[in-house]
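User: Let's play a game. I give you a shape written as tokens, and you guess the letters that built it. Ready? Here's round one.
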């Protein structure tokens, strides 16, 4: 009796092995057929093999620092050796060119009002708006939103400081 049970167990294992093999091979063939049919693949919106995209920047932000100051302007020692800022001054210039939606500047810390750039010569055909400001006491943030990105369209900001007297004689341009 035990030899029949052993033979029956071997036959059962063989039948389960054959059925498992048929199921695995069937799934593999089904996977190949479904994948090859293109049913699960995304469709392409173009007829060519390559698609090009234009990547551009339409918002330009610039930081204009306040003028340079001496780190220690306190009075000590001989007056001949005390630091002096002299007659240092600073100015910032802003310009936007081409198709501009909005261009403005204001204090970096958000205090005060913002100033919109304006066309300095509305009678010409050039699309240039500009403004200038004093940066002696506060840093400024310049923000421009463009309508398009093309040659001749953009924005620029610049800061210049100068002095003829004191410990910081010369000029700097940022």
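Assistant: Ready! My guess for every position:
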């Amino acid at each position: 009796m035990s030899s029949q049970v052993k033979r029956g167990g071997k036959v059962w294992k063989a039948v389960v092995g054959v059925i498992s093999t048929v199921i695995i091979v069937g799934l593999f063939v089904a996977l190949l057929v479904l994948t090859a049919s293109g049913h699960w693949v995304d469709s392409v919106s173009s007829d060519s093999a390559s698609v090009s995209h234009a990547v551009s920047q339409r918002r330009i932000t610039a930081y204009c620092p306040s003028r340079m100051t001496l780190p220690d302007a306190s009075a000590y020692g001989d007056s001949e050796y005390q630091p002096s800022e002299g007659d240092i001054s600073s100015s910032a210039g802003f310009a936007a060119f081409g198709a501009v939606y909005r261009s403005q500047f204001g204090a970096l810390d958000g205090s005060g009002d913002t100033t919109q750039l304006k066309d300095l010569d509305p009678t010409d055909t050039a699309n240039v708006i500009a403004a200038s400001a004093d940066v002696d006491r506060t840093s400024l943030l310049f923000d421009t939103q463009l309508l398009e990105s093309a040659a001749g369209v953009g924005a620029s900001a610049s800061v210049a400081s100068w002095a003829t007297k004191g410990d910081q004689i010369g000029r700097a341009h940022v």
